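hey can u check if this looks right to u? its 30 residues, i copy pasted from the old doc so theres a chance i mangled smth
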Amino acid sequence: MQLFTKYRLEITLLVLYASLFAIGYYWWWN
């Protein structure tokens, strides 16, 4: 369960950075 929590945190951060990158990329080209 602790391992799952660790990966869950990393996945959450990865999704957050991916969405921020997508928003920044979209804003830059519009």
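The two ends are 43 Å apart (CA to CA).
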